[in-house]
């Protein structure tokens, strides 16, 4: 999980709220809806050049702030429980969590804290922030897109986003030198729905 994930995913996955229908909402704080399972922190990495390994982190929390009048003040933060990794293969997951890769015993959480947001269109932009993974903090950029926003059937107001980025694993102290070059990077994908507070 390199360039974007401190992504705790990451984090998940994001000052994204920055571009929510610029003229619609007021400056508001949102909490990512993990209780309703409307958010995901997922990853994809090539397997020896033959296929891909897909996985996710199942436990995380986060929040974001969106100010349509001052987009630069928008922010996002997320914390991911590294031990919640699930690639649908228990033995492989134990290996991923071991000192060979994530050292989850010493570094149980990953975090992402945004430092800026630059809109690139009406419903998209690039979020910049610090991702901390395995004790290493790196600045990453993640293009993000507004999926949608509005009132839900239960009287709450929601906004949802998605974003992805490529992380160089060595940037976070994950040694992949014994594997093919194509496995040196990982794609991080984050999608989340926030409930306005």
From TrEMBL:
Q: Where is the signal peptide?
A: 1-27
- In which organism is this protein found? Billgrantia montanilacus
**Does this entry carry the keyword Signal?**
yes
Report the residue ranges that make up the Lipid/polyisoprenoid-binding YceI-like domain in this protein.
Answer: 29-195
PANTHER family per record: PROTEIN YCEI (PTHR34406:SF1)
**Is-annotated flag, keyword Mitochondrion?**
no
Query: What keywords are assigned to this protein?
Result: Signal
* Record SUPFAM superfamilies: YceI-like (SSF101874)
InterPro entries referenced in this protein's UniProt entry, alphabetically? Lipid/polyisoprenoid-bd_YceI (IPR007372), TTHA0802/YceI-like_sf (IPR036761)
Query: One Pfam family from the UniProt entry?
Result: YceI
Q: Please state what the protein is called.
A: YceI family protein
């Amino acid at each position: 999980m390199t360039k974007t994930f401190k992504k705790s995913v990451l984090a998940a996955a994001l000052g994204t709220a920055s571009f929510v229908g610029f003229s619609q909402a007021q400056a508001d704080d949102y909490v990512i809806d993990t209780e309703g399972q409307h958010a995901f922190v997922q990853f994809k990495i090539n397997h020896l050049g033959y296929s891909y390994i897909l996985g996710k982190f199942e436990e995380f929390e986060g929040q974001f702030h969106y100010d349509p009048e001052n987009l630069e003040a928008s922010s996002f933060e997320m914390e991911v429980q590294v031990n919640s990794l699930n690639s649908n293969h228990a033995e492989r997951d134990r290996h991923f969590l071991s000192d060979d890769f994530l050292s989850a015993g010493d570094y149980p959480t990953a975090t992402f804290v945004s430092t800026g947001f630059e809109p690139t269109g009406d419903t998209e932009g690039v979020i910049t922030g610090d991702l901390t993974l395995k004790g290493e903090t790196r600045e990453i950029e993640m293009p993000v897109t507004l999926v949608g926003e509005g009132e839900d059937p239960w009287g709450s107001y929601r906004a949802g986003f998605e974003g992805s980025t490529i992380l160089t694993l060595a940037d976070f102290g994950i040694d992949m030198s014994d594997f093919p070059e194509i496995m040196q990077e990982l794609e991080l994908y984050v999608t989340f729905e926030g409930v306005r507070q």
